[in-house]
Amino acid sequence: MYKINYKILDKQVYEKKGGTYYCFLLSFPIKNPYELSFGTVESFDTIYVIKITENGIGAGEVTALPGYSDETIGDLWFIQNEIAKDICNLDNYGNGFKTVAFKTCLESYNSRWLIEDKQLHSNYAKICNKKYDLDAPVVKIKIGKSVDEDIKKVRNAQEHSYKIRVDANQGYSLEEALYFLDNISSNNIEYVEQLLKKDAWAEMRELRLRHREFSFLLDESIFIKQDINRAKQHEACDAIKLKLFKHGSVADTLDIAQHALKNQFQVVLGNGVQTVIGAFYEMYCYDLLKKNIMFNNYSEINGPLKIDGFEKNRESSSIRIASCDIMSLIKEMIER
């Protein structure tokens, strides 16, 4: 088992008729600061929700991420404790970051995913800015803060043979995005991701029409099926990025994936800011989707790789998470 470093900042226990619920407020130090256009992530601020009865166990996670959700980790912690007081009101809190921890906890409890001793694997796209992992056939480069510096960064990366994903996390205006694409080659660029603000649909269409040589991927713009419909209506992209935390549950993630595939979008899966529980459930989705010809098998289920103590297994471009390891982690947390 890997030895993940973490701190328990708060813990609440709720004895309910249907079982005991544990809510953990956690901090996971990461190995290196993770640079995004809207800020720098220095640790994963995470909540685990655990349900235990004599018949089984379920677990769910949410990790706060500005730019994707308006809620801070404090907001999310308050909401989880309010839900725990009255589980019947879960649906009143909507979907996405606010409810994903409870919904996946209940899904896993009902489906017995953590008891069946599953080992799941996923190919991943290595997240990096300056240091390239040469065993990864797809490398992701974060951009969106300085266009001229971003152009230099991408040109340097294009000297290597691997494919490249560039992700601005909504960091550019239309003028900056056009300037950026005008000054790089499309050679070995797999996707350009979320260059513009999440609701800039008309600008996305213009950008794509003027740069047909690139494939465009949307992430922050896509939370529900109606967003996929908007992307199709505006001809805004070629591919859709899915993240469990955005969509609210495993079932919802798979439903949105099928909707995207039905509408002839390529699908990329994976969240770079999550720990082992969220990643395990994304790998479950990956396992069900990977045979579809429109599904991109190089996922971004690599959040755990950033956590201090978690190491990539020796298989090239692969990450493995086992349910038995998650069960050991949960047991350790409850006993502390």
Q: Which key terms come to mind for this protein?
A:
about 325 residues, alpha/beta, Enolase-like, domain 1, TIM Barrel, 7-stranded parallel β-sheet, 4-stranded antiparallel β-sheet, 11 helices, 13 strands, globular
Describe the structure.
The structure is a single chain. The protein is an alpha/beta fold. It folds into 2 domains: 7-118 and 327-335, Enolase-like, N-terminal domain (Enolase-like, domain 1), CATH 3.30.390; 122-321, Enolase-like C-terminal domain (TIM Barrel, Alpha-Beta Barrel), CATH 3.20.20. 33% of the residues lie in helices and 26% in strands. The chain contains 11 helices and 13 strands. The protein has helices at 73-85, 100-111, 147-157, 174-182, 201-210, 225-233, 244-247, 250-262, 276-289, 303-306, 323-335; strands spanning 7-16, 19-36, 39-53, 56-63, 119-123, 126-127, 138-142, 163-167, 189-193, 216-218, 239-242, 266-269, 318-322. A 7-stranded parallel β-sheet has the order 6-7-8-9-10-11-12. Strand 1 (7-16) and strand 2 (19-36) form a beta hairpin. Helix 3 (147-157) packs parallel to helix 4 (174-182) and helix 8 (250-262) packs parallel to helix 9. The protein is globular, with a radius of gyration of 20 Å.
